[in-house]
């Protein structure tokens, strides 16, 4: 771009822009001529350049940023949150949840994925292609159960598919996105205290998990952050899924579900009220007929879910 | 490595990110996280918030790599543009929070509170940015980190170019004066 010849005053006014490298080529040429002949202008420019140096910081982002970022993309990209259940510990008197470093980092990452990012075929499938393939195969596997972990009022839910061996996938959900650092987590209810099986970010998304032996139900909990109380928000009961499961007590009156909401504050559900459903959602795949769940045990009254802790 | 070859490599890395290559994301992070961080820190002030911006920017790149259009600029420019949007969100959110809490008038929109500046020498130098109005800081940081001319910044912000030129000038004068006052103290 050809500029007209700039006056000395105009050129002097451009010195700050020159210090930032924010002038056109033509202006730069004129400025260089101007500076060559004006020592005061050169000194002024040096002052602006020194001032601009405050924009450069000696250090970059801390390594923890990449660690959190890596955990976040691993959480979404691969969907597998490494969780292991620790043996019983005296402090809790029962099974205690231990998060792997990855899961702990995921908590800290305050993930920001959208709700139900992968719950429909129209979603950004390439984001989690491998996991999505695995989830699709699971849905099509004979004997797989598709279940809906629903809130007591049935308005929000998380859809899961569970294979006979306890491998499961969260397919998506309609739970509202939380504000950071709040996160969702998925627990398995057992005769012992609930066991953490997956950690999400601020929204539920496609995730793989594995249920422990003796799983009686699933609970989606919500917590305000690491170490904070977990409030159950959605529940579903399951039939025992493995041979080693503890004998379950059938729900009174043949009711298929008998969830409570623990500390969630919701009133107990009446038999006629809509509530969590163990029946497959519309469009469930083969092997997900209600007949595959002939007798469902009652979900034990949920205690306050264990806080999400990272234990070194 | 020339700028063109670096740009081609960056574009190839973004394509690899689109194919879910985490190593490609790591390479882009290695190349550009510092610039994104410097931009964000210059804009929002607090280190932790700037780091949050960095993380958000790269998460967004991971989630939506197809949004990057190589015909519209370099990867770094794209990432800084993302950081700009995120920083604006954070500044607005912070400003709203402060308005609610303080319920008192404040001149201009300032993302950096002087009280947030610690007593370290480095922070005292960089705290000079807190002396600027938001508009001055916006013009300066966009020109510096995006590599835009003042005219391009004006187009980007939809503001007359004379206004941007003036914001850059008055902002740098203010920074220079602050440093002049600060450096003798730091030298002692």
Structural features:
heterodimer, A: 312 residues, alpha+beta, 4-stranded antiparallel sheet, B: 188 residues, mainly alpha, globular
Strand and helix layout:
The complex is a heterodimer of chains A (312) and B (188).
Chain A: H1 8-13, H2 15-19, H3 25-37, H4 39-52, H5 63-77, E1 83-89, E2 94-99, H6 101-108, H7 129-140, E3 145-150, E4 157-162, E5 167-173, E6 183-189, E7 195-199, E8 207-210, E9 217-223, E10 230-237
Antiparallel strand pairs in A: 1-2, 3-4, 4-5, 5-8, 6-7, 6-9, 9-10
Helix pairs in contact in A: 3-4, 5-6
Chain B: H1 3-18, H2 22-44, H3 47-63, H4 75-102, H5 121-126, H6 134-146, H7 150-157, H8 161-187
Helix pairs in contact in B: 1-2, 2-3, 2-4, 2-6, 3-4, 6-8, 7-8
3D architecture notes:
The complex is a heterodimer of chains A (312) and B (188). Chain A is α+β, with helices and mostly antiparallel strands. Helices cover 23% and strands 20% of the residues of chain A. Chain A contains 7 helices and 10 strands. In chain A, strand 3 and strand 4 (157-162) form a beta hairpin. In chain A, helix 3 crosses helix 4 and helix 5 (63-77) crosses helix 6 (101-108). The radius of gyration of chain A is 29 Å and the shape is rod-shaped. The relative contact order of chain A is 0.13. Chain B has 188 residues and is mainly alpha-helical. In chain B, 73% of the residues lie in helices and 0% in strands. In chain B, helix 1 packs across helix 2 (22-44). The longest helix of chain B is centred in the middle third of the chain and has 28 residues, at 75-102. Mean pLDDT of chain B is 81; it is low at 107-121. Chains A and B meet through helix 2, helix 4 and helix 5 of A and helix 2, helix 3, helix 5, helix 6 and helix 7 of B.
């Amino acid at each position: 771009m050809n500029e007209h010849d700039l006056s000395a005053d105009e050129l002097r006014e451009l010195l700050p822009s020159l210090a930032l490298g924010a002038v056109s080529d033509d202006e730069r040429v004129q400025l260089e001529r101007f500076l060559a002949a004006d020592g005061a202008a050169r000194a002024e420019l040096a002052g602006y350049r020194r001032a601009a140096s405050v924009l450069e910081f000696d250090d970059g982002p801390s390594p923890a940023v990449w660690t959190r970022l890596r955990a976040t993309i691993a959480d979404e990209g691969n969907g597998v949150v490494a969780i292991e259940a620790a043996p019983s510990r005296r402090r809790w008197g029962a099974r205690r949840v231990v998060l792997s470093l990855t899961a702990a980092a995921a908590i800290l990452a305050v993930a920001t994925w959208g709700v139900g990012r992968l719950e429909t075929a129209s979603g950004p499938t390439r984001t989690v292609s491998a996991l999505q393939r695995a989830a699709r195969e699971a849905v099509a596997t004979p004997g797989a159960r598709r279940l809906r972990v629903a809130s007591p009022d049935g308005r929000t839910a998380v859809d899961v598919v569970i294979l006979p061996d306890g491998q499961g996938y969260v397919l998506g959900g309609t739970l509202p996105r939380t504000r950071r650092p709040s996160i969702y987590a998925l627990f398995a209810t057992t005769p012992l205290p609930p066991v953490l099986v997956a950690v999400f970010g601020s929204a539920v998304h496609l995730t793989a998990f594995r249920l422990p032996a003796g799983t009686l139900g699933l609970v989606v909990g919500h917590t305000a952050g690491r170490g904070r109380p977990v409030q159950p928000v959605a529940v579903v009961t399951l039939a025992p899924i493995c041979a080693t499961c503890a004998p379950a007590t059938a729900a009174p009156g043949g009711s298929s579900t008998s969830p409570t909401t623990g500390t969630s504050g919701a009133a107990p559900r009446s038999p006629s009220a809509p509530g969590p459903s163990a029946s497959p959602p519309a469009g469930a795949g083969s092997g997900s007929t209600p007949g595959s769940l002939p007798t469902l045990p009652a979900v034990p009254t949920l205690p306050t879910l264990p806080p999400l802790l990272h234990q070194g | 490595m020339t700028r063109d070859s670096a740009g081609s490599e960056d574009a190839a890395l973004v394509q690899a990110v689109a194919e879910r290559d985490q190593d490609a994301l790591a390479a882009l992070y290695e190349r550009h996280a510092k610039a994104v961080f410097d931009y964000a820190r210059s804009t929002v002030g607090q280190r932790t918030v700037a780091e949050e911006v960095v993380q958000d920017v790269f998460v967004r790149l991971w989630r939506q790599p197809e949004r990057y259009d190589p015909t519209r600029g370099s990867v770094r420019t794209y990432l800084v543009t993302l950081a700009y949007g995120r920083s604006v969100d954070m500044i607005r959110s912070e400003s709203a929070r402060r308005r609610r809490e303080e319920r008192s008038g404040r001149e201009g929109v300032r993302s950096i509170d002087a009280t947030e500046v610690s007593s370290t020498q480095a922070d005292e130098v960089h705290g000079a940015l807190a002396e600027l109005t938001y508009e001055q800081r916006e013009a300066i940081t966009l020109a510096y980190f995006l590599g835009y001319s003042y005219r391009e910044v004006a187009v980007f912000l939809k503001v007359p170019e004379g206004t941007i030129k003036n914001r850059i000038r008055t902002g740098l004068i203010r920074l220079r004066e602050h440093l002049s006052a600060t450096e003798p103290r730091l030298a002692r």
